[in-house]
Amino acid sequence: PPVIRREDYSPPDWLVPDISLDFRLGAERTIVRATLQVRRNGSHRRPLLLNSEVEAIHRVTLNGEPVNYWYEDQVLRVPIEGESATVETEVRIAPRANTQLMGLYESNAMLCTQCEAQGFRRITPFPDRPDVLSRYKLRMSGDKALYPVLLANGDLVASGEGEGGTHWAEWHDPFPKPCYLFAMVAGDLVANRDTFTTMSGRKVDLGIWVRAGDLPKTAHAMASLKAAMKWDEEVYGREYDLDIFNIVAVDDFNFGAMENKGLNIFNSRYVLADPDTATDADYDAIAGVVAHEYFHNWSGDRVTCRDWFQLSLKEGFTVFRDQSFSADMGSHAVKRIEDVKMLRAAQFPEDAGPLAHPVRPDSYIEISNFYTATVYNKGAEVIRMMHTILGPERFRAGTDLYFSRHDGQAVTCEDFVKAMEDASGVDLSHFRLWYSQAGTPRIKARLVNRTEGVHVALEQEVPPTPGQPVKQPMPIPLRIALLDEATGRPTDERLIVLDKASDEIALDGAPARPVLSINRDFSAPVIVETDRSAVDLAFLSAHDDDPFARYEAMQQLMLDTLTAAVSTGGADHAPVIEAVRQTLTDANLDPAFIAEAVLLPSESFIGDRMAVVDPEAIRARREALRADLGRTLEPLWRDAYRAHVANRYAYNPAAKGARRLKTIALGYIAATGAPDAAALAKRQYDESDNMTDRQGALGVLVNGYSAERDAALQAFYERYRTNGLVLDKWFTTQALSTRDDVLDQVEALAGHPDFTLANPNRLRSLVAAFSVNQRAFHDASGRGYRFLADMILAEDKLNPQTAAKLVPPLGRWRRFDEGRAALMRAELERMVATPGLSKDVFEQASKSLA
Ligand code: DPP
Ligand code: ZN
């Protein structure tokens, strides 16, 4: 398959300032007529090229006359003489047969669209690229009983009854937009309606559209939407611009959600919540995703991407915006810890493997494969570093300039950085390396005593990545402070930017016994190695005034202990146990923070820090430390558990923190092997009034062999078997179990009547979850690899985009011993050799072999 390269960009030959669409809707067949007003862009003689991946092309006319068009390789060529023309097409599409869930498809009897990145060409022939912006007018008609609600982008301008039980609606969107933001929905839906008055006093009608029974589960999404609208006005000065803003929840959806202008379409897991069915983490994710998609209205819709290599222009920036929003709504410290955990779990491994790519990639075969943690989460870190370097005022001046300068345009990452530079006067030329160089920089930092005083000696190294064997030093913003080991007091924090391979920086005002606190608040997305001793790390974990650095010191202490234990077969647990004791008994700490701080690093994070990953030894050593922590501190875990166990459900940060700490304490109690642990967990399962506690208890029980385990799993299944989103949790919890027989269970679950490849959430709930269960997935027999490859190949026939997202765990073969590496490669080779493989899976699997 052809490779698309960023350097080959050229502007579109033809523009389409206006398009009108007419849909005659049916699940089996939908007829789409499109009228495109096209205008030649520049002086050339080239024909109009329309991407087209529809079922059948019925008719093409040029200025009302039949035209000799040519259709080949999914491109329709229309020769045009003049400078502008009217091109009409009529095509047929088949929503029910659309298992890719791209274009117009059916989900639970509803018709809905997903066009990003290249789904619009599956609806109607069009120059499907983000730098072609058009004003859309749409008319749709369909069976009124099947599709009582007809929604699209923009404003509803007319509606009425048609013949034979049909009705129709006309929607006009006044804002020119790229076709990836086109959306329409037809279905039997009801709305939670509300209004929002913008800062200039305009009233906006808000609607969250769901199936009738789900209406009570929309309150949190609505509250989140209104909070996000207000926050964007206050923090970025951005006001909503249409009179209507709708969100529709869909069960079958490839992504999390989609920011279509005025009509966001969401995976229902990011809309529906009530305490009985959604966890605190689900509530947080809903608020974050609702905000994310809303924020795209400016960072994505009003100012969009010139080409798909610029994806991080909208995604990195919008993730940074949603992270900041969530931090403002809850705890900054806990949100930062969660975001960094996510980055380390998903992006660092990507950046260290065969699929590593820059935040602004240079080439792709299939763009869907580049909706990655690098583009999204590292992209957000890149924006955050600009915020750190410029400070909040100059950063805001930069975003103001960016939005005003580029409103209505399709632009590049370069345009964003330029706006930041122009508004702030700060030279960011060197900083641009963050967009072009892949790989996670590694920093070595240590304090040195010079006659003039204390210095910090820094070195950086950016590892080679595919296509980028040699790297330049990056500008790395590091927040640094020194803590006085005698008093526990910190010096003032300072920001230094390391922009050479190595440097030594004087830290004046150092205390007599300084301890280094570095990369505070995770100011740069890098790996920092220091020579700090266990004593220093324990000290920081008790005293650092930066909550993230405090968490980080504890993590480092745990990691050092565990990696030592894995390589030598044992290590001194005492420093970790003492540090956890300190944290658990520190009355000044918020339970939500304590909960994060006392959790051991994940097995895969430990693996990432080792030369060769040994999944069994990591599991064994981590479980040994867990058990030791559990036993030695058992009275404290029981105190923590009792302190929070009787709470009635409330949704606020304090109650959420209490729930989290309670279940983590329960996990440590279970790790002791205490005979009452299963009964305690079962009681929590039975008596809790919310899903967070219920799932927490189930997550503890599922790792053991008690009768309570089977009873709780059974009860959970019976209670929620008709609720797809909750049933997903049932699958995931079992896939993440630490039991030795999890592979048998996962294989059996893949044959469960409720398992299906047709629904991406269900597929991921079992298969993606299993693939991050390091010990089980990397079973030395290779059974885990075979299972994953079988699932990918089966899914590829239905939905290549979703199948391809499952490939990366197999690409980590270089990190494992020869035996496992050979087995992983064999599965990748089997995939690549499969006839009829999609280009989506081909790209991921073939690159993973390189
Ligand atoms: N643009 C969508 C988003 O918001 C794609 N999933 O991330
Ligand atoms: Zn996004």
UniProtKB/TrEMBL annotation:
CDD domains from the UniProt entry: M1_APN
Catalytic activity: Release of an N-terminal amino acid, Xaa-|-Yaa- from a peptide, amide or arylamide. Xaa is preferably Ala, but may be most amino acids including Pro (slow action). When a terminal hydrophobic residue is followed by a prolyl residue, the two may be released as an intact Xaa-Pro dipeptide
Domain of life: Bacteria
InterPro entries in UniProt: Aminopeptidase_N-like_N, Aminopeptidase_N-like_N_sf, PepN_Ig-like_sf, Peptidase_M1, Peptidase_M1_dom, Peptidase_M1_pepN, Peptidase_M1_pepN_C, Peptidase_M1_pepN_C_sf
Domain Peptidase M1 membrane alanine aminopeptidase: 221-431
Domain (Peptidase M1 alanyl aminopeptidase Ig-like fold): residue spans on this chain: 439-530
GO MF term set: alanyl aminopeptidase activity; metallopeptidase activity; zinc ion binding
Residues in Aminopeptidase N-like N-terminal domain copies: 55-181
UniProt cross-references to Gene3D superfamilies, sorted A to Z: 2.60.40.1840, 3.30.2010.30, Neutral Protease Domain 2, Peptidase M1, alanyl aminopeptidase, C-terminal domain, tricorn interacting facor f3 domain
Reported cofactor(s): Zn(2+)
Enzyme class: hydrolase
Protein name according to UniProt: Aminopeptidase N
UniProt source species: Allosphingosinicella ginsenosidimutans
